[in-house]
Amino acid sequence: MFDFSYRSTGAFDPVFHSHPFYEVYYFHEGRCNYLIGDRIYNLAPGDLILMYGMTLHCPKIDSSVPYIRSIVHFDPAILRFYTELPQAVPILQPFEQFKNYRLCLRGTDKEEAERILLLMRDHQARGDQVGSSRLLLAFIDLLHFVYDRCQTQLNEKRELPSDKEKTVQDIVALLERKYTDDELDMESLQRELHLSKSYLAKIFKEVTGATIFEYVYRKRINEAKILFLLQPELAVTEVGFRLGFKHLAHFSRLFKQQVGVTPERYKRQLKDDRSGLPATGVQHESV
Predict the structure, then answer these.
(1) Co-location of 131 and 183 in the same domain
(2) What CATH number has the domain bearing residue 251?
(3) CATH number of the domain bearing residue 50
């Protein structure tokens, strides 16, 4: 499976979606928050995003300006003939190691990426077998370019996790599944993980520097920001209940602590931004 669209301006359904193949997304121009899992990326022209498989994602665009992007969807199996050659560069390693990753290309790097994408478009336009083959070869060149720009991060020494870190990874994995449960508490974590409450609390704080429920509430508030952005019709109370808060006052207090404004004011600021009113100071997370 290989699908390439160059400088696409077409409409899309603004909903979270996922797919079983890899994606290379290049942002040419527009105003866009790209939501991938629980992260919000504020995009600038020249940003290139790698996406690995089934992570939920959705672009949130400003429709008042052109939204232009180039996208490649591909099954990594189509590259097996190349990646299994002796001395082949592991061009899929950035996808496999980082899962989802953004490269901020500027200057000559941006020019080179756009040159390769344009060349891919020219090969695709031929519409024959030679054009298809050269399109794939040009895409392989793009993956080499991406791999090259990821060298520093890829070559960082990554030590195997200790037993403590493995246990914390298990805790985090469980929290990712259960964080919206309004009955989530230390007793339920103890039952699920077969470890004492005191040990779970101690080891999580030791490894992460945060308590378990500091992590849970940070996750919930970030998800609330995403829901306010994607589904502005939802009431604050509904968002709070969806994310496991039993009491609106608790949700509002934590939201203001983390974001700096109440959820009601945050919603109003997003509405003003969508209406083209002067900026109100809403800050979205970026990485």
Answers:
(1) no
(2) 1.10.10.60
(3) 2.60.120.280
- Same domain as 188, residue 132: no
- Structural domain of 142: 2-154
Task: Give 150-199 pLDDT, tens digit per residue.
Answer: 987 777 655 545 677 778 878 888 888 899 999 999 999 999 999 999 99
Co-location of 88 and 143 in the same domain: yes
Range scoring the smallest mean pLDDT among 85-99, 117-131, 154-168, 244-258: 154-168
Are 137 and 23 members of one domain? yes
Number of separate domains in the chain: 2
Among the listed residues 14, 28, 26, 23, the one whose alpha carbon sits nearest the alpha carbon of residue 68: 28
Percent of the chain with pLDDT over 90: 55
Amino acid 281: pLDDT: 41
Asked if residue 286 belongs to a domain, the reply is: no
Render pLDDT for 90-110 as a digit per residue (tens, 0 to 9). Answer: 999 999 888 889 999 999 999
